[in-house]
Amino acid sequence: MAAVSASMLPLLFFARASGLVVAALVLTWALAFKSSFLPHSSSQEDLIYAVLHPLLMVIGFIIISGEAILVHRWLPGSRNLKKSVHLCLQGLALSSGIFGIWTKFHGIDGVVANFYSLHSWMGLICVSLFGAQWMMGFLSFWHRAEVRMTRVRVLPWHIFLGLYTYGLAVATAETGLLEKLTFLQTRRNVYKSCPESMVVNSLGLGLALLSGFVIFAAVSPKSHVPVNKPKCLSS
């Protein structure tokens, strides 16, 4: 059973703390400023879908997928256990991402009106890449013996695409925050120094810090404690 190295503990702590701050900020934004998510008066169902989108994409997709990346660093136990937990967390994140995009198909302006921006295009690409990554990991996990050599060759690409997709998800969220805040400030006269603007800007900064800690933890080399073998005493 491998223990977490002392050098990784501060990094894992800051990654978890950043995740909690991001979750608190997106919950505050979604629940305290609900009227900002629908520019016109609409039904309660439309409001729920509009609020669910940032919650699912930030907490369900970004934070949980980040935790899945960190599993290899903090979870004690066998390698197969870590892979199982990693796969389950990534599956939960993928489900949240798919459902988060699905909520936009129920927008009051229709499907096309909700998929015209850079944010929407990046989101579709990100979730598609994430789904392909998860499927590759799923097949590799359940067919270890048959694809052992293939898995060894594919593993570096799997790691690269996993981190790239995670970074792309954070970048997509940042474009979404910028798009929403720009709309609020130009069309609804939301001041740049108002509480809502501060919450959204803090959320963007928190996401940037979170992604930095998670990616740094993922690429940091594992430290191995040397084991000193007992010397034979000569008689």
From TrEMBL:
InterPro entries: CYB561/CYBRD1-like (IPR043205), Cyt_b561/ferric_Rdtase_TM (IPR006593). GO terms for cellular component: membrane. One of its GO terms (molecular function) is metal ion binding. It catalyses: Fe(3+)(out) + L-ascorbate(in) = monodehydro-L-ascorbate radical(in) + Fe(2+)(out) + H(+). The chain crosses the membrane at residues 47-72, 84-102, 122-142, 154-178, 198-219. It holds the Pfam family Cytochrom_B561. Its cofactor is heme b. It is an enzyme of class 7 (translocase). It comes from Citrus clementina (Clementine). Its main location: membrane. This is ascorbate ferrireductase (transmembrane). Residues 14-219 form the Cytochrome b561 domain. It is a multi-pass membrane protein. It comes from the Eukaryota. It is found in: Membrane. Keywords: Electron transport, Heme, Iron, Membrane, Metal-binding, Transmembrane, Transmembrane helix, Transport. Its EC number is 7.2.1.3.
